[in-house]
Amino acid sequence: MDTTIRNQNTVETLSSQPQQNNTGNQKRFSPIIIGLIILLLILGLGVYLFYSNNNRSQTSSFNQNTVTPTLPPLQKVQAIPNSVDKIAYITKGEVWVVNEDGIGAKKLLSHEPVIFNNPHLNQAQNKTISDKFNDDFFFDLSWSRDGNKLAVTGYSKLEEEKARNQKFEGDYFIQVWYPPHGDIYLVDVENGQSQVFEATEVNTLVGEINWSYDNKQIVFKRERPFNQQRGEIVLANTDASNKNEKVLTTYEYQGNNNRGLTWFPERGEVWFKEKISYHINNPEPSLVRFDMAKNQRDEKPVEVTKGYRLHTFSFLKDGGIMYFNTVLGPDSGTEYNTYEVRVSNPDGTNSRVVYTGKDCGEEKYRERCYYAYYSPDGNYAVGDVIYKPEAPEKTVSNKGGATWNKNGDKTAYTEGGINVLDMTTLSSKRILQNPNIREIKWAY
To answer: 66, 93, 111: which is the final residue of a domain?
Structure first.
């Protein structure tokens, strides 16, 4: 905009100079000559203005396409209608969105690659941490409820600066190095505009972002995993210039088994996991409700089976809770690889087991046995097996769904790209070929 204004001023200055010179020469020529000169000036001015305006519009258009956006560098994207289901995905340090049929893939976010030259590391080790930092830069996708906005977390500048001089204890620690994602990026899917909530201290992990219905507020978790096992649930405005953050409550967690956060703005409730199980000596995560109006949480967590720990949970279309508990082991009186799925009322009462299993599919998927991914109507995937609530026996094998569409009749999973499974026909189709996709999330 500034460039365009400067061009306009330049045009006005150039076009006024010949008029001033003409005025000074009018008395030296006869009326006929003066008339011819005026006619030529008019013709010349017309030609000049034509090319000047044409050039100015081209310059203005060029400037609009090359304006440097706010960090990270963005590419403008065409609108994807909200009536079309969309899937967001992360690949090699970039955030993309694509239609459910695989058409119209658009890049939303990227970042400038970082090259570390840590004096404590050799060249190969510096390349390792550089590649890991760049490839894993974004994490934890969260759609707004209307499918028009997307939130994603990213590495902060503070983590980047720390890594430039960080001392590692050996190659093993370099290979498993995974700094926390402390920045929050909020992106408009239609026009690609974004804003960043930057971390204010190192070793800050944020994520599991929930949007309000009007997209003006978010609720999210903030933890400091290397300093303490206590996290915060934060309410903030989505205007980065006026975040007005408020810590609603804090919680304790154990290890990395703390994922799970759901906000119901219309009910004024936030559901989350905390390390306060009351039925065993060693505290394990349980489901807790926080009442925003009363500014307090329930004193007693939702009941789970003795010997099991709460892993993933979800709310169904009718508001009921379906959650998944994984065995602790024989020392707790249960068997390894045994898991159960429970359902309860929306207030957490009448908690009951609806299915118990001992196998979640092929061995290569066993690491995913600890997590279940639920559809709004109660379908769920455990490992590489998909179940239906009305038919709890195994219904689909080797199709473990990591995310579901808003109707619950399709699920998507990553295996060489993005694959969509239609639950009505039980047919699967690869909509996008990309072996580097690390996370996918279907819009609500």
So the answer is: 66
